[in-house]
Design brief:
The structure holds 2 protein chains of 2 kinds.
Chain A lengths: L5 H27 L3 H23 L2 H18 L10 H18 L7 H7 L26 H8 L4 H13 L3 H8 L3 H19 L6
Chain B lengths: L16 H7 L4 H13 L1 H21 L8 H9 L10 H25 L10 E5 L9 E6 L4 E6 L9 E8 L5 E6 L7 E4 L12 E8 L12 E5 L2 E2 L3
Antiparallel strand pairs in B: 1-2, 1-9, 2-3, 3-6, 4-5, 4-7, 7-8
Helix pairs in contact in B: 1-3, 2-3
Classes of the chains: A mainly alpha, B alpha+beta.
Chain lengths: 210, 237
């Protein structure tokens, strides 16, 4: 069977993603105006992916349902804060879900609740100590720090630290759980993960935290 | 002698603290400390945002879609505030206002003529709720199990600790917890509720009141302290 040229296939996929993002952004914007139909459409289009993500981390249907519920209540409250210039709509929703799932999983009493995190993700500003040439310009495009960038940087790590840090990224595991999974000491896992995170930070261009 | 005020020292973040916070790798105490610091430091806030979005995007690529149960949307929908009317032009708004006013007058006249003493609900069971066990009742709840309808009335003004709100829950014999909603706070205030998830042996359902954080959404089970619980009493016909 003849395959279509790769470039046109990727262009088509890219166009579909752009259309999907545009629809999601439109529904989020309408949700901010209190439009129930748009809120419902947003739920129908995204709940499956967010539920899958929550289940992957939480492993329990009840808590995954609670997580998805909290995400959508946060979206209802903070939809006006969403800025498509800073993040793709699905990424924003998934980041809120990930933050909430981690809080539920660890039973952390975080002050930054799901609505706070939804707002927080849209508030990042240029730090005071940014290079003068960068002041007054739009900040680094958040879409640049997408899965592509992270995955490219992950592949530059050595195999063992990469495997350890992937358990934290993709399964929400603690140091102890990763150590058990990989049959390693917790100190080795901590050392690998921290070194991997530091290398990823440099690779992603996140700079040094003051 | 007055001791001069010294601003508390904020320890700098370790290079990977922010990423570890986003991934939930820190212990509870460290998690709170790093959270406080990323709220104070703009660069750390920016870094936390970047990590959160990058991890979320990567996680999405790894995750298969799973459909949540159908009732989850009903539960979410029930907890969002009253939906606003879609945007209308000023002329449309004016005409709709006039039409609504005329309809209300007409309906009021009709109700006054045709059903002057219509009972809103035929309750079969009731419960008196309080803010503490053996305390004076603060609310009366009447229930019609057939229609899955509850009428809640505040018997007196209610005051709870600042930042908290009293929330009514139903706990079914099957172990399901159903959030009914925030209780009315002013004497005489009434509310009617039809909990959509309430089925089965309603007479065996327990009632409970918890004090939930004021600005947090109500979840599927109490997060705050449960201050009162009890059951239904059958009303004499």
């Amino acid at each position: 069977m003849k395959q279509p040229p790769r470039s046109s296939e990727s262009e088509e996929l890219s166009a579909q993603a752009t259309d999907r993002d545009a629809s999601l952004a439109r529904w989020i914007s309408a949700t901010a105006q209190g439009d129930h139909a748009a809120f419902s459409a947003l739920y129908q289009a995204t709940a499956g992916r967010l539920y899958g993500l929550s289940l992957r981390i939480l492993h329990e249907e009840g808590r995954a349902q609670e997580c998805v519920q909290d995400v959508f209540l946060a979206v209802w409250q903070q939809a006006s804060r969403f800025d498509p210039e800073r993040a793709r709509p699905m990424t924003w929703l998934a980041a809120i879900a990930h933050h909430r799932a981690i809080s539920l999983l660890r039973r952390f009493d975080r002050e930054l609740t799901a609505p706070d995190w939804a707002d927080f993700l849209m508030q990042a500003e240029i730090p005071d100590d940014a290079e003068p040439s960068r002041r007054g310009q739009p900040e680094q495009d958040w879409q640049l720090l997408d899965a592509g960038a992270l995955d490219r940087c992950l592949h530059q790590l050595r195999a063992e630290p990469r495997q350890a840090v992937q358990h934290a990224f993709w399964f929400g595991q603690t140091y102890q759980e990763i150590a058990d999974e990989l049959s390693l000491s917790i100190n080795t896992v901590k050392s690998w993960v921290r070194r991997a995170l530091a290398e990823l930070k440099t690779c992603l261009g996140l700079g040094v935290t003051p | 002698m007055n001791t001069p005020f010294v601003a508390p020292m904020v320890a700098p973040l370790e290079p990977t603290d922010t990423a570890e916070y986003v991934l939930g790798l820190l212990d509870a105490g460290m998690d709170r400390a790093v959270e406080a610091r990323i709220r104070q430091q703009r660069a750390a806030r920016r870094e936390a945002t970047a990590w959160s979005l990058a991890v979320a995007d990567s996680l999405l690529q790894q995750t298969a879609e799973r459909q949540p149960p159908g009732w989850l949307w009903s539960r979410i929908e029930r907890q969002v505030p009253a939906m606003t009317v879609p945007t209308l032009s000023k002329v449309e708004q004016r005409w709709r206002l006039v039409a609504a006013f005329v309809a209300i007058i007409g309906l009021a006249a009709l109700v006054a003529v045709v059903v002057p003493t219509q009972a809103p609900m035929r309750p079969g069971h009731s419960a008196m709720l309080a803010l503490a066990k053996n305390d004076t009742p603060t609310w009366e709840v009447m229930a019609n199990f057939r229609d899955r309808q509850l009428e809640i009335k505040a018997l007196r003004d209610c005051a709870v600790i600042p930042g908290r709100k009293p929330v009514l829950w139903l706990a079914t014999p099957e172990g399901q917890t159903i959030a009914v909603g925030s209780l009315p706070m002013d004497a005489g205030e009434k509310m009617m509720v039809q909990p959509v998830l309430w089925h089965g042996n309603m007479g065996g359902t327990a009632l409970a009141i918890s004090l939930e954080p004021m600005n947090a959404p109500i979840g599927s089970k109490p997060q705050g302290p449960v201050v009162w619980s009890g059951g239904w009493q059958a009303m004499r016909s």
